[in-house]
């Protein structure tokens, strides 16, 4: 079966034609979202983008991963920080009308979780936690083979689990959220905070302070880089140990830009999580770097279609 | 329909005959568990206890809430801190043989969650978090109408979610678990720790330092009592805010001995949780003191039967 996966972003939107049997992206393209043109124009641009991409091929249905709070039954974006004008915007029905195909909408972090379940490191598994470490920290939970989104579909905000109530200030206003430690935003902030004490850190030899620059510095044994790496690892380990005690998952999958630090992040993280979990949980889980890389968002969006078909 | 609910405890075992339509306990009794006699003798004592209680009445099936890790499909107690000799003990099948009735076994914290869903503050709801604040802190999660127990059935250890990694030492060996703050064990420990600074606290006027004595002291404006109450409230609030961000539940139900402190605990707790949750979660949940009181464990055990029938 061929499916369209759409990763709707605040600036760019990725569209891919996916073979659901192989998990391969047959072809893909990226368009500018152009939020400023308004919701209807965005939907029209997506529909044109899909038609151009597909050409003479056929496809079954469309899955869209969108930031924000989604009414998944009706395909409505209730609100989204990336699309401030979209209040109860019927994204799914509008696109479905233009394309004359079924369109399924899901929150983008949840769709990432589904992508891992259908095509990634969670294949064949029923208990999966995913974390995306990017500008913020996103979460997705699959437990007993169902996507855990809660009563209003706004759960799985794993970036806003509080790991240290007297800790760092988070963008959400609370102190000590996971996102206040393990997001690119937090890492860059920690670097600037460390500048007074470590003015010669190689982090600041770069044009721009980025999370990647911090991890690269740490890899070269830069003191500030290592301090920050250790703080990120500790925060993630505490949160993941709690998720393991809560969900008893088979796998914890970590994606997003920061996960590209690879073993330099994952090795100490695995070791610390193993220290923190209670004896009965030892060896009950794996911690894996997302294998889907830059295709994660398109595959995740496509997998929304597969998941919904399974449950309806 | 009439069901037997059995609350298997390390010292005493409660047995009740429950009318599943009204949620009323028709009659109940308590027997000594007598673990020291061995598993088979315990099962025989339970079966005799049930037969004596039931007399000439009829009943459909038996639900047992047991401490420890349970293989729910096969009714096997894999291991339990309360019954150290029971390794993979087939509690369900053995009792079923003696009674010639269906017997369903579930972990006691999970059965408490089911009891709230079928007979208590979670009636008609599909997204429920329960916490039992007793000697330890137990947890139960119902999300999307299913009991969340994880891949090996050992999840929902909400007492061992880490709320402060540099905080108080927990019995499990970690620092800063919820149980290290919100259990009777922790509260009594905090009282003794405070004795040097507050030797005249009325907590120590009692024969015995108990969690109840601490809350009673706090109610009389005793300084140490209030300090401890505030620490318990803060820990619970941080954990509950994280559970709300994770599960987006309709209701958080708190039971166990410590919950009997009532509004003196619940009022500041509700207010602090409301401060901590993100705007989109405001007014999405209630925090409720368990209404089932001392019948919670028998009703919980009986509700295992109802839940399993629903899903099979």
Automatic annotation (TrEMBL), chains A, B:
InterPro entries: ATPase_NBD (IPR043129), ROK (IPR000600), ROK_cs (IPR049874). Keywords: Kinase, Transferase. Gene3D superfamilies: 3.30.420.40. Transmembrane segments: none annotated. GO terms for molecular function: kinase activity. It comes from the Bacteria. SUPFAM superfamilies: Actin-like ATPase domain. PANTHER family: BIFUNCTIONAL UDP-N-ACETYLGLUCOSAMINE 2-EPIMERASE_N-ACETYLMANNOSAMINE KINASE, ROK (REPRESSOR, ORF, KINASE) FAMILY. Belongs to the ROK (NagC/XylR) family. This is Glucokinase. It comes from Thermosipho atlanticus DSM 15807.
